[in-house]
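For the sake of transparency, this paper describes our internal protein records without simplification. The record that follows is passed on verbatim for readers who wish to inspect the format:
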Amino acid sequence: MVPKVWELIRCFKDECKTQGYISSENEDWVHVDDQYHNFLWTRTIRPSSFTKIAKASKCAVKEGISYRVVDVAYTAWLFSEPPPEELFRTVMDNQNLSKKTAVYDLSDLHSSKPICTRLNLTESKIFKEFEDFLRKKWGVEFKSSKNVVTAEA
């Protein structure tokens, strides 16, 4: 049985640590090659909020008892409910967003044959490893968003 999204991220971060990557105990990011790869998980979000957060590309990093805000190289959005198709279009239509933002629809994760929609045009090696982790450990298959088909062809 595939665990919940937050448990998947925790397991993946544990796996990243075995490869020498830095990951936070409390926040959902992985730091490698001087870049932060942030994971944001949600059930749903309004497109306008998505755009504001995606364009800001920041996250909090705990240092001792305080936090500092850092720039994020890449952000993966993990949805436990199907996101509006408009979110995929928003990323595809903005070259800056598509280079640093991945979107994963994990709503079918708990079906007998988990097939998840994704949009990942980033160069994030962490997101590629996350996809491999989901494939190998949990049998997840990916299909591209309808909006990506023409862009990848």
About this structure: The CA atoms of residues 7 and 27 lie 13 Å apart.
